């Protein structure tokens, strides 16, 4: 599904009062920058349209940014990613948006969320699934960036961990982290550990006594 962001060139830049007036009119100030552009471009976004789209995308979702001038003429159309969103400290409303414009044939790094599927064997046994990293830094060409990385935890037993090196990735995609970094682990609750230890001790003790008795009989 293609996600299109419609924007207009913004001539009002750096004037706080004028920018506040834009926000009051239902406009979100924005900027687009990156190696795919010669220079940064100041933009204006229609608030309601952008917020509707914003609910459906993440930082790693490729967007089609379409920019028009004040006469409605298209001046820019390019792949883009949401780089940063600034919020109002009091109202939590979106105040400003940064778009990153990549260069088509150059790799980029971006945070991609993990999507966990399945129920771990260890959880079925009473363990706790602990997510160490909810997202990972991915390096790939812009058109290869996955929106999410699916992690199937079904086979993880008590005490097991899933590391960066265990993740299956699409072709041309690399996680920019250490291979041994733990992403997910199945924690064994303390009470469960004690119960297993006691059971093991009680099972092994009669075997030792039985063996000793047999040796005495042979003597």
TrEMBL record:
GO terms for cellular component: cytosolic large ribosomal subunit. Residues 198-219 are annotated as: Disordered. GO terms for molecular function: 5S rRNA binding; structural constituent of ribosome. One of its GO terms (biological process) is translation. Residues 6-99 form the Large ribosomal subunit protein bL25 L25 domain. InterPro entries: Rbsml_bL25/Gln-tRNA_synth_N (IPR020056), Ribosomal_bL25/Gln-tRNA_synth (IPR011035), Ribosomal_bL25_b-dom (IPR020057), Ribosomal_bL25_C (IPR037121), Ribosomal_bL25_long (IPR001021), Ribosomal_L25_dom (IPR029751), Ribosomal_uL5_bac-type (IPR020930). Keywords: Ribonucleoprotein, Ribosomal protein, RNA-binding, rRNA-binding. Residues 207-219 have a biased composition (Basic and acidic residues). Signal peptide: none annotated. Residues 107-190 form the Large ribosomal subunit protein bL25 beta domain. Pfam families: Ribosomal_L25p (PF01386), Ribosomal_TL5_C (PF14693). Belongs to the bacterial ribosomal protein bL25 family. CTC subfamily. NCBIfam families: bL25_bact_ctc. This is one of the proteins that binds to the 5S RNA in the ribosome where it forms part of the central protuberance. Part of the 50S ribosomal subunit; part of the 5S rRNA/L5/L18/L25 subcomplex. Contacts the 5S rRNA. Binds to the 5S rRNA independently of L5 and L18. This is Large ribosomal subunit protein bL25. It comes from Fervidobacterium pennivorans (strain DSM 9078 / Ven5).
